[in-house]
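Feature request disguised as a bug report, sorry. It would help if multi-protein outputs had a clear separator. Right now it looks like this:
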Amino acid sequence: MTFDTFHIAISKIKNLKLPGSKSQFKMSPPFREELIKRQNENIKHAREAAVMALFYPNKLGKTMLVLILRKTYKGVHSAQVGFPGGKLEANETLKEAAIRETYEEVGVEANEMEVLKAMTPVYIPPSNFYVHPFIGIASQTPSFTKQDEEVEDIIEVKLSHFLDDSIITTKTVTTSYKVNVSVPAYKLNGHIVWGATAMMLSEVKDLLKQVL
């Protein structure tokens, strides 16, 4: 899809009701819904973070979505694919945090982005973060610059690939709750995306399909 067509269509999402947890649970681990019911008190005291689902045109005018591959480190999100984003800092809003972190991690300036909608937050028990996703667009092709300390690679996904239901697969993972559990996942540009990022992507996908 050309970005001009996408840009016109996506403006309609501002007035749409969010698909919410029903959409997210399509791509959640099988034990996730029950786990969250037991984690309500922890969510109240969780640290907050914000991420950006940023769409933009490539040099051919086709619509793209940017994701990042995180560095390998001693942490629960080591070497995982996710959105640009990070923890909330003092005296900033969640929207401001998503914009700032997107600039820090992939180099897109704040004045190049328009934030269209806040999505449904997702709690991540292993890291105790309550993550707030936003949908944004950049009208011009960004000149990406990755943050070498945290970002291993910048992943540019075609919108047509993201919307294709055939990219849904499963992955066997070892979690902090169960060993060798099969979870739903997306296969994007050769990367397997699961967990909280897949859940957030699912809601973004369902919302976009209402207007595209």
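(second protein starts here, but nothing in the output says so)
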Amino acid sequence: MRESVTAFVALGANLGDPVAGVLRAIDDLAALGGITLLRRSSLYRSAPLASSGQDYINAVVELESALTAPALLAALQQLEQQAGRERPYPNAPRTLDLDLLIYGHASVDSATLVLPHPRMLERAFVLLPLFEIAPQRVTSAQLEAVRAQAIKRID
């Protein structure tokens, strides 16, 4: 069996019942083989960023994963498909969006996976929930850089 790696995953949704969708996705992640859910952030409501539609519900979870980074990404994409995720155009509203943010100390730049996530530092809806569960992963300067983005903790 592979040694476990700490990973962080961002969750978001703005179609259907996004609160229920994000909470169900957290439960589904915890039920995956080779994964142990360590922590989850509160839920946050954020305005669409480079997107349209209703506000998003967001969260971040910390996992221990025995899966490789590509296998974990595939599992995340499978959960998105099960939730009815469609990709009609970039940044389309979605029933579920799962982004692998950090996978141990891995630095990956491939056609299918980039780690750490290339836009995570530009997004308050990632940084605030990440800061809540892993404050050592987010600097005050990074938080300051996204301060103008509309986001509110809801639970």
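Even a blank line would do. Unrelated, but nice: DSSP finds four helices and eight strands in the chain.
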